[in-house]
Specification:
By secondary structure, the protein is of the alpha+beta class. The chain contains 17 helices and ten strands.
Length: about 500
């Protein structure tokens, strides 16, 4: 039996056929909230009040949660390591060397408090956005940097949520009509409150954060999507820990059928309860006599802790690692349990994420490099030669990843050097040094070796370096041609040879 559809039902069916649209916005019984969210800017989605609450919670986790501690440590050591070093790339070698010397001297003490060198400043820039969302660098008139974490950037009084579209102050960042930052509001935190706010022009302040949309002026804490997952892990771990302690101990409860007598015993003084017959604890090798109507029941953990707990926790940790670009194997230092090829694939995957963050940090450091170069020129410390049209050309050398198989790494480095696909700086960067420093040290070693060889009457100083037999490579055709050439007779006499 068929039921005839009404007019509105037929119209709805026709509309579904003509305008099917995207399934991603279709609501169903299990997905009832699709399309209900409004499109709002990030400074409205994370207003100043919510930002403070989120940062405070993440700071608490960083102090007490080993997972957050591991994430912050990996960002510092793997993204920055011993430092991302600039290598001037102008057409004047002497000018390049002068820039290297000036930057190296300034990098020893670039920060106003004197507590950071340049590598440590870069490490703070790499790790601070995890918690605060962004990190600012104030360019002082004295030529030094002042680090400003995101909690010190904000408004004296938060603007109402309905005025973000027209208000030029975007949570501490003042922008013009086209969205270009013109100034920043920076204060100090006193008992958790933002006070003594001053307006700093954008020309004297640089803000570092990971952008997630074009129209964004403040960074969002990178661990924000992971807060619930981290708390789930903490709570689940606490529950399993309680279950494990219960399972490792014998607990019992005394059940009494006479509720009135139980109430009387419960009101007695705790020090007299055992003497009056109330059973409070068991001791090994002891025999206890229960009162009439009492029964002892042991408390069991019913198969806890859960044997699948580690597998579930691993899954949640992989979700956290995927959100911040750190594989689970690096996050928990568990890379050794997989095969060599799988471990190498994890390293390459992690390396790709690290290189992306290094590129962002290099672009930020390039702005500091240009500011310092202009400062040296203005102070008369540096003079740009006439044959250098672009003095800002620089190549930044980040630390490189080391392979799992060190012998294969050395062989590949040699081949890449022979092909010209990589430089000595690329090889030296994985040891936290530059090719210039290594060559200088090698030159000093050669000079010392010559002096020592002469002191101890050694014919060839190279014997101090090569105690093993060495080999030389030559083209086979050249060797044949040398064999065919007639040998020049030795006409010198014995005295001349002496």
């Amino acid at each position: 039996m068929t039921t005839k559809q009404g007019f509105w039902a037929r119209l709805k069916s026709a509309g579904q056929l003509l305008f099917s649209g995207y399934d991603a916005i279709s609501n169903s019984r299990f997905r009832k909230t699709r399309g209900f969210q409004t499109i709002r800017p990030e400074e409205e989605e994370l207003n100043p009040y919510d930002r403070d609450k989120l940062v405070a919670e993440l700071l608490h986790m960083k102090r007490n949660n080993p997972i957050i501690k591991s994430i912050a440590r990996l960002k510092k050591t793997d993204v920055v390591g011993a430092g991302i070093l600039p290598q001037p790339d102008t057409n004047n070698i002497d000018f390049n060397q002068q820039l290297i010397d000036l930057w190296g001297e300034w990098s020893d003490d670039p920060e106003v408090t004197g507590q950071f060198n340049m590598a440590q400043v870069q490490q703070e820039l790499a790790s601070t956005p995890l918690i605060f969302g962004d990190c600012g660098v104030l360019l002082t008139k004295e030529g030094q940097l002042q680090l400003i974490d995101g909690s010190r950037i904000g408004d004296p009084q938060a603007a109402s949520l309905g005025t973000y579209a027209t208000n030029p102050d975007k949570n501490g960042v003042i922008v013009n009509a086209v969205g270009r930052p013109t100034a920043y509001r920076i204060g100090s935190r006193v008992n958790g409150q933002l006070r003594d706010i001053q307006t700093v022009p954008a020309s004297d302040f640089l803000l570092y954060f990971m952008r997630m949309r074009p129209e964004q002026w403040r960074g969002i804490p990178r661990l924000a999507p992971c807060v619930d997952a981290i708390q789930d892990i903490q709570e689940y771990e606490q529950i399993e820990m309680v279950a494990a302690k219960v399972s490792a101990s014998l607990s019992a409860v005394v059940k009494r059928s006479n509720a009135v007598q139980f109430e009387i015993a419960d009101r007695q003084d705790p020090g007299e309860q055992d003497a009056m017959g109330r059973l409070e604890q068991f001791e090994p090798g002891s025999v206890y006599y229960l009162e009439p109507g009492e029964d002892v029941t042991t408390i069991a953990s019913n198969g806890r802790p859960n044997v699948n707990a580690i597998e579930w926790l691993t899954f949640r940790l992989r979700q956290i690692g995927a959100a911040i670009g750190i594989p689970y194997e690096f996050l928990m230092q568990d890379i050794g349990k997989s095969s060599f090829s799988a471990a190498q694939g994890v390293v390459l995957q992690y390396q790709s994420a690290i290189e992306d963050e290094q590129r962002s940090l290099i672009q930020f450091c390039d702005k500091i490099y240009r500011w310092k170069l202009n400062g040296w020129v203005a102070a008369g410390t540096l003079k740009i030669p006439n044959d250098v049209p672009v003095p800002y050309r620089v190549r930044w050398q980040p630390p490189r990843f080391r392979w799992i198989n060190r012998a294969s790494q050395v062989d590949s480095d040699i081949r890449y050097l022979q092909l010209g696909a990589m430089s000595l700086d690329d090889v030296a960067s994985q040891f936290g040094d530059s090719a210039q420093n290594i060559m200088r040290q090698k030159a000093r070693n050669i000079v010392d070796a010559k002096e020592i060889a002469e002191q101890y009457d050694i014919d060839d100083y190279r014997e101090l370096f090569n105690q093993m037999e060495t080999f030389a490579n030559a083209n086979f055709v050249d060797l044949l041609n040398m064999a065919k050439q007639p040998q020049t007779p030795d006409t010198t006499n014995e005295e001349d040879r002496t």
